[in-house]
Design goal:
Elements: E1 8-12, E2 19-23, E3 32-37, E4 43-51, E5 56-66, E6 70-74, E7 80-86, E8 92-96, E9 103-105, E10 109-113, E11 119-123, E12 129-137, H1 138-146, H2 154-161, E13 169-173, H3 176-186, H4 192-215, H5 228-243, H6 251-258, H7 262-273, H8 277-294, H9 300-306, H10 312-323, E14 344-346
Parallel strand pairs: 3-14
Antiparallel strand pairs: 1-2, 1-6, 3-4, 4-5, 5-12, 6-11, 7-12, 8-9, 8-11, 10-13
Helix pairs in contact: 3-4, 5-6, 5-7, 6-7, 8-9
Length: 347
């Protein structure tokens, strides 16, 4: 998928003469917002790309209602790293060109995609899909470590190599701080230059937190390197853990189930997901609880019970540790219309 402007999105529907192409990086503009409505033939929603200062920006894909099944192909973004976040309740599978298996993207996942990676996602009929992809120049990512006189983590060096047919895909987890910053982005009520400054800071904040996870994956002696079968076992363990969130297995039980030692499981979660076993579980629980309370589905006690807490006090402590404020302050927040940049291009 090639684009004269370096990054784009193509939407097509199988069996019909529909192949709509959107160029999302207009040339000659340093900061801008490009807004495209989704084709009326397939869905109600919009695609929005906002470029900010210091080499960062973001892409939002909001599908409020899919009238039929369709496919979305996004990329490539030369010299830019992409940080996708899935904001909808239901997980989705996203294919990456060059990878055999699709990526399962849920509310608690956080991936880093290297430059020029092309993603393909199938949207099912009658589904709602909300996603945001943060964008950062390769030079910015490199400078995060160079400025502090630190060596670029080996796992990130592969992202700069750009080997043909070897896409860079680095999985991780979305912690509470990242989730909070993303929601603050979505509810920004500022306009013009103030909004641009605020959003730029939020994008950089989230990227910094995500890159900080990467540094915890480095083991210079190579003693904890993960093989493909280990990664498959870790992915299975995560799926089991989240599907049994109300009655999670112990680490020993989980390790036996997927055929790993306790040590391999615990170290593997830190390397592969950037968090501990129960750190991944807690973030998943707290994000689900926040959504339930914010949307007015239930109160604090009910939310605690749904996500597996018998004690409201223990739930409140975990929630505050994740988000920095008590659960009773969670409330529904409507997304504001963002107009952060000086020039807007709508098509």
């Amino acid at each position: 998928m090639k684009s004269s402007t370096g990054f784009g999105m193509q939407i097509d529907r199988a069996g019909l003469e529909l192949a709509r192409r959107f160029d999302l990086f207009p040339s000659g503009l340093e900061s801008y917002q490009v807004v495209h409505p989704l084709p009326n033939e397939v869905a109600r929603g919009r695609i929005e790309t906002t470029m900010l200062g210091h080499g960062v920006g973001y892409l939002r894909f909001n599908c409020e209602q899919a009238f039929c099944g369709f496919r979305v192909c996004t990329g490539p973004a030369p010299d830019r790293f992409v940080f996708p976040f899935h904001l909808s309740r239901d997980p989705v599978a996203v294919g990456v060109q060059g990878e055999r298996e699709p990526i399962l993207l849920s509310r608690t996942d956080s991936f880093i995609l290297g430059p020029s990676v092309v993603g393909v996602q199938t949207i099912r009929r009658a589904t709602v899909t909300h996603e945001i992809c943060l964008l950062a120049d390769s030079a910015l990512v490199d400078s995060c470590f160079a400025d502090s006189r630190r060596t670029l983590p080996a796992v990130l060096k592969r992202g700069f190599a750009k080997r043909e047919g070897e896409p860079f895909v680095l999985p991780g987890s979305t912690n509470g701080s990242m989730g909070l910053a993303l929601r603050q982005m979505m509810t920004c009520g500022l306009h013009g230059g103030l909004a641009r400054l605020y959003l730029e800071a939020k994008v950089i904040e989230i990227i910094a937190m995500r890159l900080a996870q990467v540094t915890g994956r480095e083991f210079p002696d190579g003693s904890h390197a993960l093989m493909k079968r280990d990664i498959a076992s870790l992915e299975e363990a995560r799926h089991i853990l989240l599907s049994l969130q109300d009655r999670p297995p112990t680490i020993s039980e989980l390790a036996r189930t997927v055929g790993l030692s306790r040590t391999k499981l615990k170290v593997g979660f830190r390397i592969h997901f950037g968090s501990t076993v129960f750190g991944v579980l807690r973030s998943h629980r707290m994000q689900m609880a926040l959504e339930l309370m914010r949307d007015g589905v239930c109160n604090v006690t009910e939310a605690a019970h749904i996500v597996g807490y018998n004690s409201s006090g223990a739930f409140a402590t975990a929630f505050k540790a994740e988000y920095g404020y008590p659960p009773h302050l969670a409330r529904r927040q409507k997304t504001s219309t963002l107009q952060p940049v000086t020039r807007s291009v709508s098509r």
